[in-house]
Structure prediction request, 104 residues.
Amino acid sequence: AIYGQYPPMVDVARKPGEWQTYDIFFEAPKFDGARLVKPAFVTVVHNGVLLHHRQEIVGPMAHRIVRKYEPHAPEEPLGLQNHDTRARYRNIWVRPIKGYDTGK
Prediction:
């Protein structure tokens, strides 16, 4: 799911203890000073199945609320969440798509 905003189109999660795969394509929001020019969008593929296709992100998620966008840099630190359960991560790749958003 896109936490607190949109459920997945289908649940393809494997059993606990089995490795899951995610491919996440994220388009950062754009700002002109303090004004939001373009919201963020995300495409998510989980275990080879499309869950979200260029879904608009309506704002940052907090506990049971969606906050308003605040201006920030196009690239921010990556955070991983485990909901207070044991989780392991491997083979995490972050690959900027050069020229995609900038037209260069």
Observations:
- The CA atoms of residues 56 and 70 lie 16 Å apart.
